[in-house]
Design a protein that fits this description.
Shape: globular
Helix content: 25-40%
Structural class: alpha+beta
Strand order of the largest sheet: 2-3-1-5-4
Strand content: 15-25%
Distance between the termini: 38 Å
Length: 181
């Protein structure tokens, strides 16, 4: 069991149960999965970018990344159906908690001028974060990966609404920007 998973079970669960007065432990929100995505529009011209991104995202996640392909042809972007346009990986269980712990304690402090994240919830308690450079992860060697890629990280929770999802992420230690209110 990872350190973050232990914190969730011993500190976060009792705090959320007390906060929302849940009768059943099954009502307590938790993190279901974490999805990492890198979109590569420039991969249409350069197929080698896909291989580099698969290697980078696999190193970050600790599990093999999958190539995503175009569903439709778009002539304006010189894109045909079935062409590789991105890379993704979905983490669950122990790998999910390990990634989240590394993300909070190692990667976030490496973000330039970091003040905290602006929370972007989807209405169902799931959090989406955009990262401008994947270099914040220590697993990435800048020499082998010459171009910085943006990344989307989605934390899928079992929370019913944004308030519960925000509180869960706060208790888990995700740094949010302090509002001036």
């Amino acid at each position: 069991m990872t350190r973050l998973e232990t914190i969730y079970r011993e500190k976060v669960v009792p705090a959320l149960q007390k906060e929302f007065a849940y009768k059943s432990s099954m009502q307590i929100p938790g993190i279901e999965k974490i999805s990492l995505n890198i979109g590569l529009g420039s991969a249409v011209q350069n197929q080698k970018l896909i291989e580099e991104c698969v290697a980078d995202l696999s190193a970050i996640a600790g599990q093999k990344a999958v190539v995503t392909r175009a569903k439709k042809s778009i002539a304006a972007f010189k894109l045909r159906e079935g062409m590789p346009i991105g890379v993704r990986v979905t983490l669950r269980g122990a790998r999910m908690y390990e990634f989240m712990e590394r993300f909070i304690s190692i990667a976030c402090p490496r973000i330039r001028d970091f003040q905290g994240f602006n929370p972007s919830f989807d209405g169902r308690g799931n959090l989406n974060l955009g990262i401008k450079e994947h270099y914040i992860f220590p697993e990435i060697d800048v020499e082998k990966s010459p171009k910085a890629y943006g990344m989307n990280i989605t934390f899928v929770t079992t929370a019913e609404n944004d308030k519960n999802g925000r509180l869960l992420m706060d208790y888990m230690g995700l740094p949010f920007r302090k509002s001036g209110k």
